[in-house]
Amino acid sequence: MTWPATATLLPGEALTYTVRLTAPATGFTATATVSSATTDPVPANNSAARPTAISANQAPVAQDVVSTVFAPMGETAGRRAISPLATTDTDGTVASYTVTALPPAAQGVLYYDNAGTPTAVTVGTVLTPA
């Protein structure tokens, strides 16, 4: 954004421009820097660079995923790979997933590859994206 040129600003005078932005989410970061092509004789009173950060950690959003690796099978099919978990994170990348709930074991058991060993997922298991 470029403001119109100011020919003269006398000592003690101030010039203010206002920028209004619509926040894309409840947590975001906005940084503004002001520069001038002229020399400021009293830089100590100048707020030419004032970064303003407004951020809050936003929880990632999980996506509903239907496994496309294999069609649904009967309960005697044995272990099968499933499609990977999918999430979005507006303020970063997903470093891990923590399992907070599971269906009853009678509905099936979810396993993950633990360094080549199939390991049952339990509540509290931390998984990392592939």
Structural class: mainly beta
**Per the principal axes of the C-alpha atoms, what is the gross shape?**
rod-shaped
**Average pLDDT, all residues:** 75
Low-confidence stretches: none
Q: Please write the string of helix (H) and strand (E) elements.
A: EEEEEE
Number of helices: 0
* Cross-sheet strand order for the largest sheet: 1-2
How would you characterize the overall build of this protein?
The chain has 130 residues and is mainly β. 0% of the residues lie in helices and 12% in strands. The protein contains no helices and six strands. The chain has a two-stranded antiparallel sheet with strand order 1-2. Strands 3-6 form a two-stranded antiparallel sheet. A hairpin with a 2-residue loop joins strand 4 and strand 5 (117-120). It is rod-shaped. The two termini are 40 Å apart.
Supply database-style keywords:
single chain; 130 residues; two-stranded antiparallel ribbon
Topology:
Blueprint: E1 61-62, E2 87-88, E3 97-98, E4 111-114, E5 117-120, E6 126-127
Provide a brief overview of the structure:
With 130 residues, the chain is an all-beta fold. The chain has strands at residues 61-62, 87-88, 97-98, 111-114, 117-120, 126-127.
